[in-house]
Please model this.
Amino acid sequence: MLHTAIAQGNKKRETVIIRSSRDSSNTAIARHDIDGIAKFWLPDFVLVRGNSVITSGKENNINSWTALFKTSPEVSYIRKSSEIIISDNDTVAWEKGTWTAVKSYSKGGNYSAMWKKTGSEWKLQAELFVSLH
Model:
């Protein structure tokens, strides 16, 4: 029983860490801070955008975000997590929620993210965004 209570406490702590990372990522996007966004990505990070464009690798995603901010200086994205589930072995996590793009128009939808624990840090392995409106 004590082991179960400790495990549940650890999962809650890990969930708080991931939510905090998501909030920091949202802040970095609003500031157009590429380093602040990319610090949460693994080297082989995969992003599937709402328009179905797939970008693989941290460096390719850095280049993509840099180009986006250069051509659309007003763009911002807000991701709002609704659920985070930590795996039984505490090595991966699944996050889901909603996202909104703010530009000269607004659009948004749902997203899913896979987080992977490397050492004591949670990093993003993949994100999938689906445009629904």
Summary: The two ends are 46 Å apart (CA to CA). The chain has a mean pLDDT of 92. The helical segments are 2-31, 34-38, 58-71. The domain at 2-131 is CATH 3.10.450.50 (Nuclear Transport Factor 2; Chain: A,).
